[in-house]
Amino acid sequence: MKSENVILVVVNPIAGDNDKDNIIELVCSEIKSRNFSLEVYKTTGEGDKAAIDRIINEDNPYRVLVIGGDGTVSLVAQCIHQKEICLGIIPAGSANGMAVNIGLPTEVPQQIDVALSDNIMKMDIIFINNKLCLHIADLGINAELVKNYENSGIRGKLGYFLQSIPTIFNSDYPFEFEIETAQGIEKKTGILLAIANANKFGTGANINPDGKINDGKFEILVFKNLDFIEILKTAQEKPEMSPDFVSVISTDKATIKNKAKVPFQIDGEFMGEIESAEVLIEKESLTIAVPQAYLELHKKEQHL
């Protein structure tokens, strides 16, 4: 049985290459002011999942707050999905895709308010070859960009921009994909195949405007070419992209095969190169604190 008075704070001290001490102080101060008990765990990169699992089993927290990026959020999600424990996010990484997707405020005090609020919802999780995905995974040119970005020394949007041009010129695109769903088998050729639970990449690019994180479906989006006018549309909140640029399949299970090994990333982390992917969704298995506007939007959509 979970404790209604214990909050676990998981901190990645090196996420985003910025000092976390001030954020930790603000978070801990606010938690204590609300009369909660507090446990802080700082990740080391070794044995973190086992350590977090042990703390959860011993302290039974009712909420876990993450101070870090998408990698740390994913780590904690692995520990608490299918449990009645709420996830709160204080984005502090070089990639903060989940924070972008749920529309978290940019100021830390407001982020803390959301993370500790009663505005909670249950979201779906995708598993790709048994690996957890919260917002977007992809095969192709963007995964290659993620790999090059990870190997560079410059973080943030500037780092992605600086790696984009050499990635475009050196990539082996187009790629050939075979996609099998309950609707049948389709063969597609493109520069990128995205598997999307949410709407946006961590950069803010909205590639899946009609996706919902609590509808029991994920979208497979095959981007066919480098059409820069269409790519610019992804900066809009509700882009209307041409079917000549992207095709979309909505499903709850899929097998994806490639003729050759293709670069692969999940939630902004490069995972190597793969020839096939088994994809399925775990419906409403992670509880997460979100801004009220995001919660209201999804409540309305659920009842349409």
TrEMBL record:
Molecular-function annotations in GO: ATP binding; kinase activity
Lineage of the organism: Bacteria, Pseudomonadati, Bacteroidota, Flavobacteriia, Flavobacteriales
Keyword Transferase among record annotations: yes
Keyword Repeat included in the entry's annotation: no
Protein name stated in the entry: Diacylglycerol kinase
Organism: Aequorivita ciconiae
DAGKc domain: residues covered: 2-132
InterPro entries: ATP-NAD_kinase_N, Diacylglycerol_kinase_cat_dom, Lipid_Phosphate_FormReg, NAD/diacylglycerol_kinase_sf, YegS/DAGK_C
PANTHER family: SPHINGOSINE KINASE (PTHR12358), SPHINGOSINE KINASE RELATED PROTEIN (PTHR12358:SF54)
Keywords for this protein: ATP-binding, Kinase, Nucleotide-binding, Transferase
